[in-house]
Amino acid sequence: MKQKCLHCGSQNYWLNGTNNGVRCKDCKRYFSDKPRKFTFDDKERAIELYLNNCGVRKTARFMKCSP
Question: Same structural domain for residues 28 and 47?
Fold first, then answer.
């Protein structure tokens, strides 16, 4: 399955080097073709933990990531 452009939704793109992601042929913008590690809900939870006085290290431990 081919990934869609995050900006215009097109599936018409080309690779831009080995680690640089891809470039859309329609809107000429760059985006990554790699899956995201954290979802929007994960990021929202991490911010909520941090804002409720749960330190950076403890938040990282709960989210199973590095500080």
Answer: no
Of 35, 52, 47, which is closest to residue 60 (Cα–Cα)? 47
Parent domain of 67: 36-67
Q: What is the pLDDT of residues 27-39, one digit of tens each?
A: 888 877 667 788 8
Is the model's pTM score more than 0.70?
no
Contact 12, 25 (CB under 8 A): yes
What value, to the nearest 5°, has the Cα angle with vertex 21 and ends 17 and 27? 105
Residue pair 27/7 in contact by the 8 Å Cβ criterion: yes
